[in-house]
Amino acid sequence: MRTAPARIDLHTHSNASDGEHSPEEVVALARQRRLRVLALTDHDTTAGIERALNAVRAVGDIEFIPGVELSCDVPGTEVHVLGYFIEWQMPELQAMLEKFREGRFGRAQQMVAKLNELGVPISFERVKEIAGDASIGRPHVAQVMVEAGHVEHMSEAFEKYIGRNGPAYFERYRLTPPDAIRLVLQGRGVPVLAHPDRVLDYVPSLVEAGLAGLECWYAQYDKPLQRQLNDVAKHYGLIATGGSDFHGLHRMGHMSALGEADVPASAVTKLKKKKIEIERMKK
Ligand code: AMP
Ligand code: MN
Ligand code: MN
Ligand code: MN
Q1: Mean of pLDDT over the chain
Q2: What was the pLDDT predicted at 5?
Q3: Which residues line ion ligand 4, judged by CB < 5 Å?
Q4: What is the pLDDT of residue 185?
Q5: Largest Cα–Cα separation, the chain
Q6: Digit-coded pLDDT (tens) for 123-180
Q7: Residue 122 contacts residue 141 (beta carbons within 8 Å)
Q8: What is the DSSP secondary structure assignment for residue 256, as one 8-state letter?
Q9: Dist CA 13 CA 261 (whole Å)
Q10: Could you tell which of 11, 20, 158 is best to mutate to test the pocket of ligand 1, judged by most ligand atoms within 8 Å of the CB?
Q11: Kind of pairing between the strands at 80-84 and 63-71
Q12: Spatial CB neighbours of 247, under 8 Å, sequence gap ≥ 6
């Protein structure tokens, strides 16, 4: 019976992408939850990192890991690659992230047009307003659909319209998983396969491309699955990482609470060691 609070969360989102809270608020919430280590891993953007870092520096009692989460181009399923300790200022990396975000913007426009055709009248202006400067995602579209009363919950928007097999789903520009891993490595980051349960078939080819870790201690997975994934990580010599995939205090229906994952301290130590190795290799 272990109920000690978790102290490490390596997978979180802010409103720099589709999270509910500002980077400063995520840091404040992490402190409230008494986290020792926090990584911010927004979708296709590093815009929240500087702000989170400043908030962390102002308080000094929490360790911050800069990160990013890249969605990859795979037919029929979601493969997401996390990049830890990424050198976010690198121009080549920023140019690619910018390209992904342009793709997100265009796709959101297409989705709204299709929704209008399907008799779900929402305005792209409102989607842009809600997203602000964020990397636009389907949750922003879903939020407008809820607000306009077309669906009751965001998950209903996904189920009926904008989920992968939904009538208003559109593809956008993304990298293949091995290319996403290479991009993270190019940015001197440590590449980790996020919520890998349904995409384990990809692991061998990703290891070949330089994958360093597997998100085993994912808060939405039950313990047996987490342990099974840990065995997979061991088999391939991957670092077993973990996190909550926190998106906000009011997004709990779909995601987990901040700090909910049981992540061992060794995950952080190993990520740091790997970061140093990657830096040496790239010199
Ligand atoms: P996108 O990044 O635009 O492809 O949108 C994917 C994001 O939508 C994920 O990162 C989640 O935050 C969110 N999401 C995915 N499925 C659902 C769902 N069923 N209900 C609510 N949010 C979801
Ligand atoms: Mn998300
Ligand atoms: Mn993800
Ligand atoms: Mn995520």
Answers
A1: 95
A2: 47
A3: 69, 245
A4: 98
A5: 56
A6: 999 999 999 999 999 999 999 999 999 999 999 999 999 999 999 999 999 999 999 9
A7: yes
A8: P
A9: 15
A10: 158
A11: antiparallel
A12: 13, 18, 19, 20, 139, 254, 255
Q: Which of 278, 277, 265, 199 is nearest to 10 (CA)?
A: 265
pLDDT at 6: 54
Instruction: Please state whether the predicted TM-score (pTM) of the whole model is above 0.70.
Output: yes
The number of the ligand 1 atom at minimal distance from the alpha carbon of 18 is 12
Tokens 């870790």 identify what position? Answer: 213
Cα separation, 232 vs 203, whole angstroms: 9
Atom of ligand 1 nearest to the CA of 13: 12
> Kindly report the CA angle at 113 between 108 and 116, in degrees rounded to 5?
125
Question: For residue 102, what are the contacts with CB-CB under 8 A and spacing of at least 6?
Answer: 173
- Chain-centroid distance of CA 51 in Å reads 17
Beta strand 80-84 with 190-193: parallel, antiparallel or unpaired?
Answer: antiparallel
H or E element that contains 8: strand 8-9
